[in-house]
């Protein structure tokens, strides 16, 4: 791999790190993802939702329309999120969401 390509990749990762939070998975995420299964059958999507809860994320940004429909957090497409950011309409929730605020009934 050429040095220019390596530098480009590193720059891209650094840019992403300015706006996004990387969240690992542990046993509690697996437990929660399993609890989501009756409401949303995609285990990988459920792991994403569990990570959002643990990170106390303000938004979930994805192109996965099924995940957007079932998310118990504000979920936007990248284009919609870009618009919110560009217009200053994105709001930071601060503490993410508290367990008592979580609705176990998902949007369909």
Structural class: mainly alpha
Distance between the termini: 45 Å
Arithmetic mean of pLDDT: 79
Return Rg in Å: 16 Å
Fold topology:
Blueprint: H1 3-19, H2 27-36, H3 43-55, E1 60-61, H4 65-70, E2 75-76, H5 78-87
Parallel strand pairs: 1-2
Helix pairs in contact: 2-3
Short description:
With about 110 residues, this protein is mainly alpha-helical. The chain contains five helices and two strands. Helices cover about 50% and strands about 5% of the residues.
What can you see in these coordinates?
- This protein has about 110 residues and is mainly alpha-helical.
- It has one domain.
- About 50% of the residues lie in helices and about 5% in strands.
- Strand 1, helix 4 and strand 2 form a beta-alpha-beta unit.
- Helix 2 crosses helix 3.
- The longest helix has 17 residues.
């Amino acid at each position: 791999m050429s040095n220019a390509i390596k530098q480009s990749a590193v720059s891209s990762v650094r840019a992403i790190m300015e706006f996004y939070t990387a969240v690992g998975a542990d046993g509690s995420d697996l437990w929660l993802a399993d609890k989501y299964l009756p409401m949303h059958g995609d285990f990988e999507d459920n792991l994403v939702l569990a990570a959002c809860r643990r990170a106390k994320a303000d938004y979930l940004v994805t192109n996965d329309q099924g995940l957007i429909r079932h998310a118990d957090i504000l979920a936007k497409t990248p284009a919609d999120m870009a618009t919110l950011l560009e217009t200053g309409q994105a709001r930071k929730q601060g503490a993410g969401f508290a367990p008592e605020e979580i609705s176990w009934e998902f949007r369909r």
